[in-house]
Automatic annotation (TrEMBL):
Similarity comment: Belongs to the sigma-70 factor family. ECF subfamily.
Keywords noted in UniProt: Sigma factor, Transcription, Transcription regulation
RNA polymerase sigma-70 region domain ranges (all copies): 13-80
Residues that span the membrane, as ranges: none
Database matches in SUPFAM superfamilies: Sigma2 domain of RNA polymerase sigma factors (SSF88946), Sigma3 and sigma4 domains of RNA polymerase sigma factors (SSF88659)
InterPro entries to which the protein is assigned, alphabetical: RNA_pol_sigma-70-like (IPR039425), RNA_pol_sigma-70_dom (IPR014284), RNA_pol_sigma70_r2 (IPR007627), RNA_pol_sigma70_r4_t2 (IPR013249), RNA_pol_sigma_r2 (IPR013325), RNA_pol_sigma_r3/r4-like (IPR013324), WH-like_DNA-bd_sf (IPR036388)
Species name: Dawidia soli
Keyword Transcription regulation: yes
GO BP terms, alphabetized: DNA-templated transcription initiation
Pfam families: Sigma70_r2, Sigma70_r4_2
Protein name, as recorded: Sigma-70 family RNA polymerase sigma factor
Amino acid sequence: MGNGLERAFIQSIQDHRGAILKVCRIYSDDRDDFDDLFQEIVLQLWKSYSSFRGESLVSTWIYRVALNTAITSLRKRKRRPDQHPLQVFHHNQAEAADDRIDRIYAQELQRAIQALDKFDRALLMLYLEEKSYSEMAQILEISENYIGVKLNRIRTKLKELLTP
């Protein structure tokens, strides 16, 4: 690739870094998986950058590549045995009760999101990014009507998972 193309690629990654990080956050179990997934997504974007035809927005293309890479990575991780050591959590005794409640709720919400299937997680991420139904439909290659149906089902599923 030429030098101008490299600069354009780097600028695209910088402009859309937040989107890539969000995909990594949703599809990774720990910091190592997060870092590996981020690198893999950037590598896949680089490999396919010269063939990007501009038929969609760069952000749409980046989301699609990031989601496909994350889903492929998730499949590979599920096939290998769990290699993560036991994690030890240290609790700060001075932590305020409100902070603990917020942390616990955030952990429960993250577990509920992880319990969703990979397509639902992708759709939820795009929804939380405040993408329009049209943008979500284009990125996920489904109809706008189906977006609404799936979002309602996701809301119901999350309520079930978060209700004691």
